[in-house]
Amino acid sequence: MKDKLEKIQAEIFREGAATFVVLDGASVPGLLEKLAQWHPPAECLYRGEIKPEVAPVAPYLAQMEPESDFAKWVLSEGWGKHWGIFAIVEADLRTMRQHFRRFITVHDESGKPLLFRYYDPRVLRTFLPTCNAKELAEIFGPVLCYVAEGEEPDSVLHFEARGGKLVQQESK
Length: 172
What we know:
About 30% of the residues lie in helices and about 30% in strands. A hairpin with a 2-residue loop joins strand 8 (about 155-160) and strand 9 (about 165-170). It is of the alpha+beta class. The strands form two sheets. A seven-stranded antiparallel β-sheet has the order 2-3-1-4-7-8-9, sandwiched between helices. It has a two-stranded antiparallel sheet with strand order 5-6. It has helices spanning about 1-10, 30-40, 70-80, 95-100, 120-125, 135-140, and strands spanning about 20-25, 40-45, 60-65, 85-90, 105, 115, 145-150, 155-160, 165-170. The protein has one domain (about 1-170).
């Protein structure tokens, strides 16, 4: 397990960049307790006052530090369980929250608002390859690279937007 954790850490942390994780409270047991325990810089992606029954299942953006207990917990307990996605950025928490909030709600053909769970790695790895250049520019914004678990538990997917095209790499 230690080797796997070190491999994943090497994939998601870059010198000179920040790493954020968007965690799905509905998939992460005890997320609010862990955020309170370790106090990583974190924000709920929902706006305004969150109802007590919604808070545990809401999506949260948190900054990851390579050797923190929070990062070790997310990677060792959550990898392979669809807890969330990682973003390598050159931006701060506030900028990233504004960016990620933009994608929480989408509208269907009739204009009905729908929750877009892009922060589920199964959704992200299916959605990104369908994006055109304009959509990639929008979803990436300040994000240098998205990292998510692959279909296989030990695989790591990297997504970058280069020249209006999606570049996807998988490492095992």
